[in-house]
Amino acid sequence: MKAMILAAGLGTRMRPLTDHCPKPLLPVAGKPLIVHHLERLATAGIREVVINVSYRAEQIIAALGDGSEHGVRIAWSREATPLETGGGIRRALPLLGEAPFWLVNGDVWCDVTPSALAPLGDDRARLVLVDNPDHHPAGDFHLDAAGRVHAQGEPRLTYAGLALLDPVLVADRPDGAFALAPLLRAAMAEDRVGGHHHRGAWVDVGTPARLAALDRALGGSRG
């Protein structure tokens, strides 16, 4: 199985840290955040990784190269301007192929592994969901007792930014910028989205304060 790391965002919530450094390269416990992802993927046995890049793309490519230093092979999907999550995946389909792949938002940190999730079967997606963090108390989706994900319903959980996806979910969309969430909701309406409630470590590294907290939790020295 291949993986895709989403790393094309502008990192506006992380300013001023991202004024001169793209968010994936911000250090956490002595190494760039994206390197934590690459090492976890390699440990899980995933060797083929697609990374989309836009903002300060050359810095990211120069830092990671072909990925061999981290036990993976990286294929780069370039975007002149960020294409949002759905558009970024659609642009990368020639690199991803037709088999389900593991999707990772570049600005999260999580100790879940792909092996924790059941295969897709006839589903279009299987989402990793977590308890709602303080900064997102309303959550995103409802996970029922049968492991099915719904756009409506209670209680609600938060999408962790990790998922197994079938490329078919975006394959019929034209190239360009578009969000993934509406396509997921449409698949939920057809009962084709499953979920996994992850109760382990997870951090949305979306602000300088949360980056600093993760750094301290992992043994770094960021104040």
From TrEMBL:
Tree of life domain: Bacteria
NCBIfam families assigned to the protein according to its UniProt record, in alphabetical order: NAMPUrTaseMurU (NF045761)
Limits of the Nucleotidyl transferase domain: 2-130
PANTHER family: N-ACETYLMURAMATE ALPHA-1-PHOSPHATE URIDYLYLTRANSFERASE, NUCLEOTIDYL TRANSFERASE
Matches recorded under Pfam families: NTP_transferase
Annotated protein name in UniProt: Nucleotidyltransferase family protein
Entry keywords, A to Z: Nucleotidyltransferase, Transferase
Signal peptide range in chain numbering: none
Organism: Halomonas nitroreducens
Listed InterPro entries: GlmU-like, MurU, NTP_transferase_dom, Nucleotide-diphossugar_trans
GO molecular function, one term: nucleotidyltransferase activity
